[in-house]
């Protein structure tokens, strides 16, 4: 797995999990201090799961199907842990970083 | 009905976790460190040259063969493992002598060779990362068979704890990202839940596959039922399971070993030169000699293709496929996932972090048990004996064992390189330091124990790179300059671990000071208002 491929799958996974997380009302309020509209919640949830699937594809593309699947589970754990810690201590930074990671991941996915 | 089921699962979760918790903590910590066992081996052998131009597989085998012909002429088995990637940083050979007249198995010897000169290396005698990792399933100071059973029972308890934990965790999806710091019991529970769920696939895999390793030890009657009792019948099963031709045994007729280079070339052509792993020679110099060449693992499937050549004629007689039966392949994938030998640098670090998360899951569970009971027993005069016992054992193990592991590295640097038996003393240092921490935890006042042990741990790890600088030529000043990232990374990780312990100690102190100040001011205001 190249460095670029690794960053791609990490960025996609982080923003995907961030989306799934923010789709939950409790966490959205922690990050943005107000509730989200139903449309936004739907978008975040759909986008989140989509990006998670893309990060799995990125891992498999970089390392083959079997190793890629194992790699993805590890990336998932790491990103989830990072999101939990950020949500507890710096919730607004979570929103911003997920927003930055999303286009980076998507771009890297299309280019690599 | 549902409530009663959940309650009994909660009880089961608590007590399987509590009874096996400390052994599981030991297993998880040593196992997690085991993902960097060969890196640890390299760090613990500072006499090893820094960076060497890689020697080709064929040349390494030639060098090894010359040494084996000289040192182990009549042996039953020669095994050559050239330096292939991180799994084997040095040229390793193994040889086993034939059994003597009474049938007692012959002695076996492991040697590390210099790949250019072919002479055994003179690194300091050390167990390295291998011994630390083996303690993960062999424990220490006990026969292997006993350890396998203890480890197996604890792994079974772990599996039960995981599954009951999933059942008991009511809001497993809703609370996936929930962690509320600063709320005592609530925070410990959140931490325990988050650590478990975030890495749940890893925890389930590692526990189940861990049990699969010794499944034949735990369930021997399955083979007996079909093949009969005794080691010979077991061997029939193994031969069938691995679908390899059974060992023909010594012919007793001398025949010179055919040249190995053409065999290596044939294997390289089949798999690619970068994928050669090892050469296994049975009965060299005998008419029934066999030379097997194995391929490296690249996927979770732990078994790989092997080419078997006739040792006397050099002809290829057998190609053992990686997959011989589906059940065996399933087993080999499970074991392969557990060991993670196929993992490259990225994945290896992810395995390591997942292992640390699992270790922390166990630790937070143990602490949660005491925090909950402290709260329940706050009104009592005397806390219960079991609570005090568990609290002290927690501190002495959760912080004491990492201190012991630091002591293992301290001993590696401080025990003189030429001292006989130093490898054993390195291991003794680990257990002596851990025992001292357990005694400390027992003797010191409860409010000071964790704080003091955290500072000892911080000092133990932060000072190690300095000890390294004073005692060897493989400290950060040298390794960073030469860009030897394995050795430099090890020292940097030690610094990071020490810093983490220091941070925890500082946070604990500020909270303890805050609590004491709060109590003092409350008492002061109570006196004023009285």
What do you see in this structure?
The complex is a heterodimer of chains A (112) and B (530). Chain A has 112 residues and is mainly α. Helix content of chain A is 89%, strand content 0%. Chain A contains five helices and no strands. Chain A has helices spanning 3-22, 25-32, 38-63, 65-89, 91-111. In chain A, helix 3 crosses helix 4 (65-89), helix 3 (38-63) crosses helix 5 and helix 4 (65-89) runs antiparallel to helix 5. The longest helix of chain A is centred in the middle third of the chain and has 26 residues, at 38-63. The model of chain A has no long low-confidence stretch (mean pLDDT 94). Chain B has a seven-stranded antiparallel β-sheet with strand order 3-2-1-4-5-6-7. Chain B is built from 20 helices and seven strands. The model of chain B has no long low-confidence stretch (mean pLDDT 91). Chain B is globular. Helix content of chain B is 62%, strand content 8%. Chain B has helices at 2-34, 37-43, 57-71, 128-138, 144-168, 185-198, 200-213, 215-218, 221-227, 231-242, 261-271, 326-339, 345-376, 385-398, 400-414, 422-443, 446-462, 464-471, 476-481, 485-529; strands at 77-81, 91-96, 108-113, 276-282, 290-295, 306-310, 316-320. Chain B has 530 residues and is α+β, with helices and mostly antiparallel strands. Chain A binds chain B through residues 1, 6, 21, 24, 26-27, 63-64, 66-67, 70-71, 73-75, 77-78, 80-81, 83-85, 87-89, and chain B through 174, 176-181, 194, 198-199, 201-202, 298-301, 337, 342-344, 346-347, 350-351, 353-354, 357.
Provide a short characterization of the protein structure.
With 112 residues, chain A is mainly alpha-helical. Chain A contains five helices and no strands.
What's the overall geometry of chain B? globular
Strand content of chain B: 5-15%
SSE ordering of chain B? HHHEEEHHHHHHHHEEEEHHHHHHHHH
Poorly predicted ranges of chain B: none
Give the strand order of the largest sheet of chain B, numbering strands 1, 2, ... along the chain: 3-2-1-4-5-6-7
Distance between the termini of chain B: 52 Å
Shape of chain A: elongated
Got a strand count of chain A? 0
